[in-house]
């Protein structure tokens, strides 16, 4: 490889690294909101997959059916994780041009 090509490659890698760092920062401000059970359980998660809140509508919950409530919370959290991962993957893909770089997401 010619020295000029190697310098170009290094500059591109540095640009990509800076863009990836910017996207990581932006993900802190991204939020996904998931509602399950007809709005009984609502979950908000950041693009960094940090759970911000869980809301449960007490009027819609049967106190004798804790198992159902546990299932709804689990479903909401799992869906929020999936959506947050999709947001992060979409943003990173825009930076990497779709290259699958191991360890990014």
Task: Please describe what this structure looks like.
By secondary structure, the protein is an alpha+beta fold. The protein has a single domain (3-96), classed as Ybab, Chain: A. Helices cover 53% and strands 17% of the residues. A three-stranded antiparallel sheet has the order 1-2-3, with helices on one face. A hairpin with a 4-residue loop joins strand 2 (41-46) and strand 3. The relative contact order is 0.16. The mean pLDDT is 86.
Short note summarizing the structure:
The mean pLDDT is 86.
CATH topology: Ybab, Chain: A
- From N to C, what is the helix and strand string? HEEEH
Structural class: alpha+beta
Highest-level CATH class = Alpha Beta
Radius of gyration: 20 Å
Number of strands: 3
The number of helical runs is: 2
Envelope shape = rod-shaped
Q: How far apart, in Å, are the first and last alpha carbons?
A: 30 Å
Query: Which strands sit side by side, in order, in the main sheet?
Result: 1-2-3
What is the domain total for the residues? 1
> What's the main sheet like?
3 strands, antiparallel
Query: What's the CATH architecture name?
Result: 2-Layer Sandwich
Name of the CATH homologous superfamily: Nucleoid-associated protein YbaB-like domain
Strand content: 15-25%
Overall mean confidence score, pLDDT: 86
Unreliable residue runs: none
Percentage of residues in helical conformation: 40-55%
